[in-house]
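Record type: ASSEMBLY
Status: queued
Input:
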Amino acid sequence: MAADALRLDGVHAYYGDSHVLHGVGLVCGEGRLLGLLGRNGAGKSTCMSTVVGLLQPKRGAVTLFGKTIGGLAPERISAHGVALVPQGRRIFRSLTVRENLVVAAQKVRAGSLRPWTMARVFETFPRLGERRAQYAGSLSGGEQQMLAIGRALMGNPRLLLMDEPSEGLAPQIVAEVGRTIVNLKNEGLSIVLVEQNIKLALEIADDIAILNSGSVAYQGAAATLTMDHPAITQNLGVH
Amino acid sequence: MNLWLVLAINSITLGGLLFLLSAGFSLIFGLMRIPNLMHGSFFMLGAYMGSTFLAKGFGFWPAALASAASMAVLGGLVERFLLRRLAGQELAQVLLTLGLSFIIADACLMVWTGDPIQPSTPPDLRGAIIRSGLVFPIYRLAIVGVAIAMAIALWLLIDKTRIGAMIRAGVDDAPIARVVGIKVSQLFTLVFCLGAALAAFAGVVGSPYLSIYPGLDAEMLPLALIVVILGGAGSLPGALLGSFIIGFLYNFGQAMFPDLAYVILFVPMVLVLVLRPQGLFGRVAL
Ligand SMILES: Nc1ncnc2c1ncn2[C@@H]1O[C@H](COP(=O)(O)OP(=O)(O)O)[C@@H](O)[C@H]1O
Ligand SMILES: [Mg+2]
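Status: finished
Output:
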């Protein structure tokens, strides 16, 4: 049996003294798309930071394709095949589009069928190709999001983490981002998609995990969930 | 008329030296988020080392390069073995660089005594060019030429290479740079070596003109600090512009309003800090 792409087991994480993740456990199967939902402040981005190594878990294990990565530095974890599309995009604003992709390029993993190159990113996002010499800070929000995704793909990841990629984008751009995510999944990439846009997540995810106040309140198949399911209304509804 | 010309030449000469000094200071500040308070020490110690290499029979430019190389090694050691242990504790890092600057100042006093040393100008750059009654000292012009050549080389390195793009990415957003796989801590070492080498090079090149004496470090450091606050941390064009602004303010200020020399230098810095904290060209507020 193939190992899970990502497993968090009893992960506790702190910002200084503030205890944010209280024993988070979740699983993203290989080649699957896990939607990670939760209210603002539930700890979704903190989970992402813990996986990529920006935050060290105090307790618990983070396992990537069967290998423990807890405690490694971010650049090491990146070399293990994890890429992040951060919340708020955080592209390198004073670098050109091309440079944003160049600095993120990583050695291609053995056995990778269609490795990501700059040419392939431009093929996938033609707008980025047209703007390759432009400073990333001058791009529109949607283009910046494409660039953040392209930058993550340049690392040729096995696991792609996306933190609210639809945030602040116009509906037609959100749809485009959604299609891109589905295409990536269809290529076999394992993806964790953090979303506030519940509808989008339910539509494209295979599995759903819901975080509430720093622990997982629900994990199950996306197909069994609807907007009026108690797991959704209780954990995501406005109080 | 001639006084103005002399002042202007002195200003661009100082501007060129300040650029060599502050380019590295700016990159270190932008990437590591700390003002390296031993940057003036790299300048002074570099100048002293250069004078020793000269005394040992090195030519002027080989002495400057040898001094730059030895300061690069020292800078690399300081970053790898001292600053890195304090990673993430910016205040402790700044205090460490301050402490090291005092240690270096005392060590220099011991080794080179307190008497000023003035290395002689390289023989083929002595004298002056006289054009329509105006006198241009050749060595000062050479300093400017060297500074411009270095500025171009640095610009090529930072703007046109992948390593340079990685450094700029680290200045923009260091945590995310690490997440995309950039080994930011190696860039720290590289930038620290480079900054130390440039400062030492500036120290040697400036020594026939400034001479070398105890306290030179403490005189240069505030100038580098003002340059970088004016220009913006991490920005080479900012450091270039800031250096020439300060070069002119310093020389014209001292000539015209000697009592207000420091006011004239620091008022622009205070204004920039209050009105535009990211500096003229900078991207991140200090
Ligand atoms: N850098 C930080 N320092 C201190 N507390 C933080 C930091 N980032 C987030 N938090 C806190 O951690 C909790 C979880 O935040 P986050 O993971 O960003 O939530 P989400 O992404 O689900 O909206 C919140 O209470 C937030 O205030
Ligand atoms: Mg978040």
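Annotation: Residues 3-112+134-275 of chain B form a domain with the ABC transporter involved in vitamin B12 uptake, BtuC fold (CATH 1.10.3470).
Annotation: Chain B touches chain A at residues 162, 165-166, 168-169, 171-173, 175-184, 283 (CB under 8 Å).
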